[in-house]
């Protein structure tokens, strides 16, 4: 058994990433014990628990709470891409037929219309276009989308709101950057994954550092406040030296934020991944070495480690939010999420309010048919119980702030942590013994070494995970 290691609790408000940048190495025993499949907790309950739900169902529905929101977030899913990346697990459509995107946009705008009478006229404080490849839309349709959304929702101008877009550097040009900035976008997220040519060939996504560097520079010139890169470790053909070389290039380009995701190879679930040569896949121990090397390289370069997979420069809004205890997590990962509710538009999009979640049909065909028929495309969701809300809050505290205060538990439940969550603490006992968690008289917190197993700590509080036996649907922790 590995030695138990307890780190001192950081002062309140100090991101844990600042405390110990070089935690003790992980042992093979720890990996064997904790690296299995586990939810990523972008929501609680996780979306695979959602039940069939129709807008026509009688009774109160989670979207009824939209009538009293004070602030709103919007997400629009644009599923189209020009070519297939073999690692992809997103809901996407590979096509060169632009007409598909244009009629899809008609449906998204019709769906937005469905919300007109159902949402309070509350300012949108965060808008995100994701995909797929949102910049698959031409500039005219990007304008049409934003004008249509502005007709239904209150989209304030100015940079106090966060308008972000996921962009594929292979298909983004200066003109579209001009358009996006003119439409109010101020945050750009570029999908990089890896700069190594061999890895790029193995995943069918070729993109040069020069392309990314030029876009980063051009975005900054136009006043984008934050440029973020998505990187992935665990890809075919990757090893520690190649990843470190990619990171050197990334650090030269100095993005404001970096998301470093673990590649979950699930070819039995995702058809695209069957195109990956499994002989090129790194071993679990190589993946761990890559993750440790990457987090060390990024924190040594001055980035703060946030949550389980994000890094940000200390002056970036996400890092400031983490320092002030305002970091949040939603379906796009870590975010500043000050809104009361999220309306998700498009195929597979998920929405939520204080009362629960609701999700649209996944396939474009089913989505389009539903919008055509009834103006919305909801097919499943979840009405939150009081117990769900408590666990949702607790899981997000752990995932975002790596701690939960005893006083907060007592304020919410009227009980001590040990009484309110006896079974959960028993499940966490091995993590405490392994030095991944510390339970003291002030709070329960995750140590730097425990950060790798944040999902396991959160999972102890997931009622539904422990009621059924379906963990293998989730990706592995490491
Ligand atoms: S990774 Fe992005 S660009 Fe590539 S196929 Fe998936 S959604 Fe499309």
Automatic annotation (TrEMBL):
Pathway(s) where this gene product acts: Porphyrin-containing compound metabolism; protoporphyrin-IX biosynthesis; protoporphyrinogen-IX from coproporphyrinogen-III (AdoMet route): step 1/1
GO molecular function, one term: coproporphyrinogen dehydrogenase activity
Protein's UniProt keywords contain 4Fe-4S: yes
E.C. number(s) listed in UniProt: 1.3.98.3
Names of the cofactor(s): [4Fe-4S] cluster
Main location: cytoplasm
Annotated cofactor note: Binds 1 [4Fe-4S] cluster. The cluster is coordinated with 3 cysteines and an exchangeable S-adenosyl-L-methionine.
Protein name: Coproporphyrinogen-III oxidase
Species assigned in the record: Microbulbifer elongatus
Lineage: Bacteria, Pseudomonadati, Pseudomonadota, Gammaproteobacteria, Cellvibrionales
Record gene name: hemN
